Amino acid sequence: MEAFQNTPNAPVPAGHSNESNAARLARLLAKAKAFPEVAGVYLMKDAVGKVLYVGKANCLPERASSYFLGSTDLGPKKQPMLELITDIEMIPCEGSWEALLMEARLVKDLKPHFNTRLLDDKTFPYLAITTRDEFPGVFVTRDPASERFRNARLYGPFISGASLRHAVQLLQRVFQYRTCDLDIDSTDPRNRSVRPCLLHSMAQCTAPCANRISPQRYREDINRFCRFLEGKRSVMLKELRAEMRKASDEKRFEEAAILRDQVQAIERLDERERRGDEAQYDWQPEVTISIQDPKLGCKSLQRTLGLSQEIQCVEAIDIAHLGGGETVGSLVCFVNGRPFKQRYRRFKIQTVANDDYAAIREVVSRRYREEGKGSELYPDVILIDGGVGQLNSALDAFAEFETKPPFVVSLAKKEELIYIQRESEPLKLGRENLGLKMCQAIRDEAHRFAQHYHHLLVRKRLIPNGVSTGKTVGKQASKSAQGQGKKVIKSAPKPLPNSKKPSKKNVPKRKSAPDT
Fold it and tell me: What is the dihedral of CA 139, 145, 147, 150, to 10 degrees?
């Protein structure tokens, strides 16, 4: 870090004191293009060696060279910086997550003029780890002085809040820390009845809320995460491998497997980053989303509904029946705009027959019973298939709970109107609105899942056990008839021992009928 301290008295780079502006930009462009094609940070310096700006890049030559192209427009705040740059340096990193941390440390230590100027009217985001809690949580905050983060371990400031949140989500797949606001006490007997949230199903949280991990083991994971943030990755991997071998030698194979998976996850971190978010889940192949980027659909829906927090989880409910027979309900779950099959649920309606409103109330009461007690977290948005009547039925069921859901909407077919809780008029969006397309895709998947279960129950009721459908019925009937024929032949009376078959000679000829 000492090599990049701001030194106003540093000498001007030799041989460049009298070069023209065009020659200076050409030299800087050539130097930037020669950077290795890896993630890292770059530092812009002036004639006396003072750092003017620190930036990060997923690919150093592409990002750093873009400043010195003839067509580059850096905007009113950064354009004056271009006239002052005489040198550029870089620090390669193992991935964009490390580049993000390196950028934050350099900006904090060096306080470059143009980094500070860009954020004069904003507050810096920090990464806070609430180490005073029995199960520390990991949070992104712009208010580190809040009472909530008293005695917390802080990292930052960071330049980009969006990049920081992306890194937190990426590293959560490795260290599986919690990001919820629950007040967790390991001695609380109610923890045994808690069903872990979606992140546990996605292997992104060890579910301390449900006593799935001890405080000691959770604290060890948090300590590894802190060492990782402090740049001690190689040391931490060495310690993990040693702990894994020790656990294996002591025949603690389950613990050794957990440590092995953590080592492999850290080693694959760069590969996951290159692959991006599309490959992080095994999605249902039969589900097709009608928008190219589901995350854009989530952002559009967030703006449409006026929500302050990013939409990550949406659950949808639909009812299916035929004239009141075999009434069923379905619940599908979408994470970051894509279906998450492990959280799908289906319900056989028990209280009513031909009443969609009552069926929705039953599904809501059965599905969100624990969330209503405050034991679990609701999804960000709950979508009901139907109009205002279906929405009010769901809200009636939620009204009986102690804890209410954050946001409930319904989507009516034909006109595709979105009815929102506490709003008297529906929301009508353009057919090309990405938020509407997202709701339509989730609604259609809930409808498909409900119809599939309904048809399954109908077939079970109409077709007796042991009888198949289609061509198999004919084959089975034919085999059955043949079997019965054999039984008839076997049961025919046997001839007497002394009897003989009549010969053809002794058989009288039958006289033909007379003509009339």
Answer: 70
Q: Give the model's pLDDT for residue 318.
A: 93
Strands (E), 177-336: 313-322, 325-335
Q: CA-CA distance, 263 to 436, in Å (whole number)? A: 41
Average pLDDT over residues 438-463: 86
Rounded CA gap, 375 and 373, in Å? 5
- Domain ranges in the chain are 2-118, 126-275, 294-461
Residues 6+ apart with CB under 8 A from 67: 28, 32, 44, 74, 82, 85
CA dist 273 and 135 (Å) reads 27
Q: Coil, helix or strand for 458?
A: helix
- Classify domain 294-461 by CATH architecture: 2-Layer Sandwich (3.30)
List, for residues 73-85, the tens digit of each pLDDT value.
Answer: 777 778 888 888 9
Tens-place pLDDT, residues 463-479: 766 554 444 444 444 44
Sheet holding 153-155, edge to edge: 138-141, 126-129, 153-155
pLDDT in tens, 190-215: 888 888 888 888 888 999 999 999 99
The residue whose two tokens read 């006593």 is 211
| Helix orientation angle between 215-229 and 161-175, rounded to the nearest 10 degrees | 130
Query: In this structure, what are the phi and psi dihedrals at residue 183, rounded to the nearest 5 degrees?
Result: -95, 100
* CATH code linked to domain 2-118: 3.40.1440.10
Strand, helix or coil at 471? helix
Place of tokens 């020659």: 23
Q: What pTM value is reported for the model?
A: 0.47
pLDDT digits (tens, 9 = 90+) for 261-277: 777 776 665 444 444 44
d(C-alpha 334, C-alpha 222), whole Å: 29
Is residue 164 classed as helix, strand or coil in its secondary structure? helix
Q: Give the pLDDT confidence score for residue 266 in this predicted structure.
A: 67
* Mean pLDDT in residue range 36-52: 89
Q: What angle do CA 493, 496, 498 make, to 5 degrees?
A: 165
Task: Tell me whether the omega of the peptide bond preceding residue 112 falls within 30 degrees of 0, making it cis.
Answer: no
Output the CA–CA distances (angstroms, integers) from residue 73 to 59, 62, 63, 69, 79, in the order listed. Answer: 20, 16, 14, 9, 7
